[in-house]
Design a protein that fits this description.
Low-confidence stretches: 15-62
Helix content: 10-25%
Strand content: 15-25%
Radius of gyration: 30 Å
Number of strands: 17
Structural class: alpha+beta
Distance between the termini: 99 Å
Number of helices: 4
Order of helices and strands: HEEEEEEEEEEHHEEEEEEEH
Amino acid sequence: MAPLSLASLSSFFNSTALLPRTWSLPRASPCVYFPSRPTSTSTSPLPSPSSPSPRPRSRPRGRTPRKQISTLDPDRLQPSDFIDLSTHCTVGIWTVPRGSYAVPKVLLRYELGKRKLRLPFPSGARGFLYYARDPELAEGGQVRFRIVPTPEGAFEAGQDLLFRNGMPWHITPGILPRAPAAGLARLLLRDGLVTQEQFAAWKSFPQMLRHSPVVTRFGQPFSLSFSVTMPGIWVRTSTHGRVCHLRFRLSTAGHPFTRGAGTVCLEPSSLPEHAGSRVVVIRVLEVLEPVESRTGLGFTPPVPVVGELLRYPHSGRPVEFNLDVSSSAAYNLKSLWDDYAKSKPGA
């Protein structure tokens, strides 16, 4: 390699190769615009704050409908509390005058579909958000939505909004004591719909996205979809003081039912073959939506019957959980059995 001459070095340093390069700051957000440094020595002015900002890179979202409500008490509802959820994926609810940021707005959503895509509320979902007391529920009540045709319509004549599986739509109690639902919590406490003790107990409930019921004892009614292959419930007991999610499989070869829902309960088995064993079964208390079977099954699955035990659709045997056999279901249900054993006379 030939050595560089003094003339070539002088020509290199006098060139623009070592001049500082001009660059642009990255955009931290489509809503924030950072102007680039000028690439020349021209005196053209920098963009002013009133200059149009660049187009966002993502597709702009539609505005979330907003509504202000005054109460969740069914006896105090006013026509101004009427809400239209129909065909919207998200609706914002304010419980204080607009413009106040002391309490954030509450976002109401329906449920997730395939690939976790958010589904819109059903057509005709218009009515009132309210608190429904239910002593049979572990949480003592739920925030539900009552469908009423018009703001002046009779509340008692309406029907509750349902999930796709036939269960009542509701706001999970585990999120009510937390910031996203602080506005609703404020209304519940102000109107005396819940007590401070009940509200404090909700803090131990899971912030579950799925709408599985919470079970605290044997014999407690809870909702169940008969067409779900692997339904789930939350188990919460005083013995262990924990909340765990129990999932159990009703079918291994595809569920033969396309729809159907009802109210059931867990109970210790009284079948002769389970004598002396710790076995838990499911009893059907009420059929809320009749089951419909798929066509071309080649067999007739046993349908749920009120007062009888829930059965597996293929084998016809009762759905059972043997607590003496190691399994996740047995581990989660042992606390219910312990509470049951302590409540028996002479325990």
